[in-house]
Amino acid sequence: MTTAPVESEHLDVLIIGAGISGIGAAYYLQREHPDRDYAILEARTATGGTWDLFRYPGIRSDSDLHTFGYEFKPWRDEQAIAGADKILDYLRETAAEHGIDQRVRFRHRVLGVAWSSADARWTVEVERADVGDVVAFTASWLFFATGYFRYDQGFSPVLPGRENFAGPVVHPQHWPEDLDWAGKRVVVVGSGATAVTVVPALAATAAHVTMLQRTPSYILPVPSKDAIGNRMRALLGEERAYRVIRRKNIAQQRGIWWVCQRFPRFARRLIRRINAKQLPAGYPVDEHFNPPYDPWDQRLCLAPDGDLFKAIRAGDASVVTDRIAGFTESAVLLDSGRELAADVVVTATGLTVRPFGGIGVTVDDVPVVLADTVAYKGMMLSGVPNLAFAVGYTASSWTLKVGLLCEHFCRLLAHMDERGHDVCVPAVPDAAMPKRPFLDLASGYVQRAIDQLPRQGDRTPWLTSRDYHADVKLLRRTPVEDANLRFSARAGRPQGVRGVRP
C-alpha cells in the first residue's frame, strides 16, 4: 500500500469487478440486504468483464446460456450457445434493470487491500485513472469478483525464431481491430477452447487455417440451439420454461461429467467415435483427436453445430500435431521438418492465471500468501476476515456456482446481523488436514500457477466441490453457522445494532 492516499468513503460491501460475477453479486446483495451500502470497483471503462475484453473472431460461450445465465433472469435468445455480443447485451440489460450499473465506479483500479482487526474493517487503496489520484475506501466486507486470469496479458510461450516471421503474430486476448486475414494463410497455435472457437471463424474468409497443436484436446460437437428448450419456451412461456430448461441442462452437464469421471475409457471411445463421424473418411483421428489424458482432466471443448469439423471437411481448415522448431519469414518450421506457410500467426496458447486480480492482501500488516490459505466452501480464505470471492465451476457452467456462492454470502451477512457479529474468519481446525490445489485441472494455465492459488482440503467445508447438487445442499440449505467459522463483534459496538460504522 502506498502512503497517505486521499480518504474517500466507507461502504458496507465493496465488490471488485463488474463482470458476470460482480453483477450477480450486486443483484443478490441488494435483493437480500437492500439497506446495505455497496459499490462495484471496475478498473476498465465498461461492464461485462471477459465478454467486453475479448474481441477475437467467433468469441462465444462454451456453456449453454440457460445455465451460464443468471437463475433470476431468463435467457430469451434461441441460441443456447451464444456469441459475446449477445452475452454482453444480457449482462448490461441485467445491470440496467436493477440499477446495478449506477453503482459501478469505472477506472477505479484496486492497488491493495488491508484489514485492521482493531477497526474491524478493510482499507482499499484505489487508483482513479480518470481523476489521476489515489483514494482509500473503507469497507466492512470485500467481495472479489475478479475471476482468475490476468486481463492485461495472456500466456505467450517462447516461440523459437519468432522474430524471423514477417507477418503479424497475434494473441486472441489482444486482437487488433484492423487485422485483415481475408484470403490469407493463418496458423493458429493451440488446441484449447479459444483455438477451437477462432479456427472456424477465421476459416470463413481466410485462404486456409491450420490449427497447430502439440497435444490434441477433446472436442464435442453440440447444437447451438436447444431444440427441446425452444419448444418448451413456446409451450410454457419464458419464465416457466427457463426453470425447466435450466434443470434439464444442469442434469445433462452433470451426467456427461459423471460418465467421464466414472467411465473414462468408455467416454474416450464415445468421443472418438463422434469425432470420426464428423471428419472425412480415412482422416487420422488418432493422430489429431485422441488426447493422452482422460476426458475432463482438462476442459472439454465444444464445437457448436460442429463448426470446426465442417471447416475441416470443406478443406478450409486443417489440424497438424507437431512442435514448433522455428520460423522463416513466411512459414512455421516444425520438428518433423515440415513447413507451414503462413501470413498470420495466432497464438491461442491460453490464459495467465492471476488470482484476485493480482491485488495484494494484508491482515494486520502481514501479507497474505494465497498458497498458505485453504478455501472455505470455495468462497472464503482461512485466516482472512470478512473477505469473500467468486470462482465458478471448471467442469460446468461458471455461473451455477457463482449464484450459489452469492446466495450463501447474503445468508452469512444475515446470520451475522441476527447475532450482532461484525467479523467472520474461517479457521482450519486440523493443521494436518491433507491439502491439494484449489483447481483440480491438468490444464497448462492452471498448472503454471499452481503455487499462486489457495489450497483445498479433503473434507467439507474445506473441499471445493465440483458438483452443483452437492453445493445446493451445502450453500443453500445447510445452516451458515459451523465450527469452522469464528465470529466476533467489534470492540465498543452496541449489541444488536448493525451498521454502526467506525
From TrEMBL:
InterPro entries assigned: FAD-binding_MO, FAD/NAD-bd_sf, Flavin_mOase-like
Family: Belongs to the FAD-binding monooxygenase family.
Short name of one Pfam family: NAD_binding_8
The protein, known as: NAD(P)/FAD-dependent oxidoreductase
Keyword list, A-Z: FAD, Flavoprotein, Monooxygenase, NADP, Oxidoreductase
Residues passing through the membrane, by range: none
UniProt lineage: Bacteria, Bacillati, Actinomycetota, Actinomycetes, Pseudonocardiales
Any GO molecular function: flavin adenine dinucleotide binding
Cofactor: FAD
